[in-house]
Amino acid sequence: MQVLGVVGAGASALCERVAPHLDGRVAVVERRAGDADGDSSAAPESDADRPDGVDTAYALGDGSWSAAGGDRSLDDVLDDLAPAYDHALLVGFPDAAFPTVALGDAAASNVALDAADADAVDVESVLAAIADAEPHVTLEALVERVKASPRADRAGAIATFTGRVRTKDGEDDPETLELTFEKYEGVAEERMREIESELMERDGVQEVVCFHRTGTLRSGEDIVFVVVLAGHREEAFETVSDGINRLKDEVPIFKRETTVEEDFWVHDRQ
């Protein structure tokens, strides 16, 4: 799922201009009025109708729904949306770790474009910023992707692997605070696609999807996913194992580790 943020007066209006140009399903996530600087003209409804003791309440109607809750972060919401939506537009989240369009005097942590107002923004530039950004990918989204395969009717198994940031190997090891990953642009993606295609040539294997995140990830966060759709569990498990091994050995992705004691590129140590 591709994600773009918009902050400042007129943010909702800009999203309305951009959304019809996006392929696939589009979700808009807006910050509640008063929570941060940004356009709150179409903020979500109040929690007034949420009963005491209820964390989240949904209202379903004919072709529409609404919700109110107090226990969801932006990351939680995006994780929920990723399996079913192709794009998410964020209104009023200046600190979000996604490319952001800043309107007027609004500030943001990751400004991709800025303009005096919504009317001054070139939609083509916005679409380019969305396309260039790393997608928000979850394991659930990749599982849904392989389930939608035209060859899914021949599959009775889905096996997955998730790699995450490990805090330490042993009790006496220095604690790892974060890992930073950089891809050899173009080459890394091409090699992953080649690995997927080669693994799919195996008997009984219907779909293979690999994804590796880049940027800085904190302890406990997910790094890499491998998902295999296969006829039976034996070929699914074997292909998942081979897939992560080949990804680590063959895809040019570089890792910098930051511990409580030092900061270093892992390939330099090796």
Count of individual beta strands: 14
Strand content: 25-35%
Biggest pleated-sheet summary: 5 strands, parallel
Radius of gyration: 21 Å
Oligomer: single chain
Task: Give an account of the 3D structure.
With 270 residues, this protein is α/β, with parallel strands linked by helices. 26% of the residues lie in helices and 31% in strands. The protein contains 7 helices and 14 strands. It has helices at residues 11-18, 74-81, 123-132, 139-147, 187-199, 233-250, 266-269; strands spanning 2-7, 26-30, 56-61, 64-69, 87-91, 100-103, 111-115, 157-164, 176-183, 205-212, 215-218, 222-230, 253-259, 263-265. It has a 5-stranded parallel β-sheet, with helices on both faces. Strands 11-9-13-14 form a 4-stranded antiparallel β-sheet. It has a 3-stranded antiparallel β-sheet with strand order 8-12-10, sandwiched between helices. Strand 3 (56-61) and strand 4 form a beta hairpin. The chain is globular and about 50 Å long. The two termini are 35 Å apart.
